[in-house]
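Methods — Computational structure assignment.
A single polypeptide chain was analysed. Its primary sequence is given first, followed by the predicted tertiary structure written as structure tokens.
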Amino acid sequence: MRIGYARVSTQDQNLQMQRDALKRAGCERVFEDHGVRGNALIKPQLMALLEFARAGDTIVVWRLDRLSRSLTDLLTLMEALKRHDLQFMSVTEAIETETPSGRLFFHLIGALSEFERDVIRQRTVEGLASAKASGVRLGRPPRLTDEKWEYVQRLKFEGWKIADIARLVGVSRQAIYDRQKKEAAGGAA
């Protein structure tokens, strides 16, 4: 079955040109998103189409940019189609995964996607290593700062209960206990 997808960014735009192209391409059903931008993460009718489609069906669009304006999102969607054994066709760009050149396109998309993931992973690892080497403290900042810890120590010395101190300082009791363990371990080492 050929299933079409059409999208316009604003409510004022007209889908008729896309509908006509999808009908000429043999689509039996067309899902349409109105007023949904190309870079939107959620395209309700595209999601509905993907739930409706079955292995072997062909997803048809008028142009690639109707799916997404982001190469990353487009690559992710193409990989998802391949995993679900769905074919793909773009009328304007003449891409059809039922042909040898279309299958080549799918393989290229997969290779580009894998390359992009590897580059992002490598940049992340290098960035973290660089930050660590320059003394940047990674991770979540402590809720119980050194200044607050001094205040907690003073209140403990005055006989306050941990629960009351935690409420006053704005941290959990566990944060105070964790800091005590950390201080004890650091003092013992």
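Note: Residues 100-133 form the longest helix (34 residues).
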